[in-house]
Amino acid sequence: MVSYNKLWKRMIDLNMKKKELAERAGLSLATITKMGKEGTVVTTDVLVKICVALNCEIGDIVEIVPDENA
Fold first, then answer.
1. What's the pLDDT tens digit per position in 12-26?
2. Environment class of residue 27 by beta-carbon count within 10 Å: exposed (0-12), middle (13-18) or buried (19+)?
3. In terms of CB atoms within 10 Å, which end of the chain has fewer, N or C?
């Protein structure tokens, strides 16, 4: 399963709201909000835009965690 917990932590550290991230990354707020739902995946393009906006690597905002139901 994909986890965006690293992204949320990074945003907290930067004191950044979802709306601000969406604006910086050129994404809709709905896309950022969608990422908050467990098990939701987004395209690599979305992740790249976020990384560019935050000046980081994909591994800094996303991680793969074992699915407990599998």
1. 999 999 999 999 999
2. buried
3. C
